[in-house]
């Protein structure tokens, strides 16, 4: 059996919802919120609202009615506190309070997401027992959760997938105003797509400030004044899929002239894993995402995750992008050698580049991030597209 109070009060048994009137819901909510220790009949009388004075007899009758549906222990001649039989009943408030207590000072964003996901609405907006004492522990736990969210760095906070929906549950709650302010600055994302821009905007606009470009002419207008944190590019910019302008024109420009991370979306990804890896390295693409799923429907989850990865500010995401820079530069030095297979100079440069790339591995894995940035920048200046011997 499940009793959920973090939103609309619901009671379910084996998935089926049990109908309860307002008075029984209020009584059960206070019993559920009082934890394993329970709540005394006298305290229930004090906390329960009513248009007339609630008496011990009223409480007894309500609990008697509830016991026909829900396992409640306590009461009796000794007037023991009423409590739910926790061995038989799941209470979402228990899971929330206990989860918050177990959080460390710098929690994993996934743990915060799980706890925010327990909330389905604002129980204090409609409930007549909003001010009742047993809610105090839930309120304190929610305040603690909010403080931990605010203490996250921008990257970890941006990784929270449930934060916006959690805050939206409490539109009038001023205690969440600081979180709302922190959420307002959406990352800037350039999206280049010729056919389904409206569909993409429908899944991206809530999290990103999207700058839309629908054709190569639009790209030529914006390319010299780019002010975005990531680019999501359609591989083919003609309806018949005969071009590769998303890569040969746009992604290659970004690789050669900017530091902006890019991801390719396509209905025709490379058929092999090696082709996928080579395409990423050739154009310094963070990912190559299949634009559609089974049945031709838009692959919304993968596209949204790919967009989030482009603007992810966490350290591990930063390391991943640095590693991609090294892999892309090495790919093109290898291309120099492939186009000049008999050149001893090309072979020597390739060996030197491989040695330099290998030397970067330790700092890329777990060295100080500032040092990793400096060393990759130095590597890129020597081996990137502006090297004197560059073929491409």
UniProtKB/TrEMBL annotation:
Protein name, entry field: Transcriptional regulator
Q: Which top-level group of life is the source organism from?
A: Bacteria
Q: Which organism is it from?
A: Actinomycetospora chlora
Which InterPro entries does this entry report, sorted A to Z? Answer: WH-like_DNA-bd_sf (IPR036388)
